[in-house]
Amino acid sequence: GPNVQGVPILVSGSFRIGDDDNFIQVRLMNLIIIGVSVAAMAILTWLIHGTSLGRQCRAVQQDRKMATILGINSARIVSMVFVIGSVMAAIAGVLVTLSYGSFDFYVGFIIGLKAFSAAFLGGIGYLPGAMLGGLLLGVLESIFAGFVNSDYKDVFAFSVLVLVLIFKPSGLLGRPAVEKV
To answer: Which residues contact 63 (CB under 8 A, 6 or more apart)?
Structure first.
């Protein structure tokens, strides 16, 4: 149904760094999320840049017709890209659900918009840039929520997107697109 569904806590606990007055508290679940995210990104980067499948994916992305002429089954590659994207989305969905402890039918909307913003911030088409954009957007959003107001952190995130689109449309690490004639 449309009601919020709870998820049982799988890993509980946290640890502190610092003394009793000044400390940082980190949940173990957050460390697991960071570890799984970095591992998934490393595997995806290796898959795209270090395997024959990745080379075929890049060839189809650059010029589908030429890749087909060279003997690459473009339809199979497009299907594999959808499978890879679905696996990455499933990993992200599980991690977000474990982090929030609940989910509902529209939880992915705002997360998807922020992922889009992070990809633009880092540079569309550049995997490490998208991850850097996500980390940078998360840190900026947390700083804004801590110093200004947490009610407007989503507005701040989308303001960052607008500023990036105005001043650096290719993203921080993206390269300007070469227009093909």
So the answer is: none
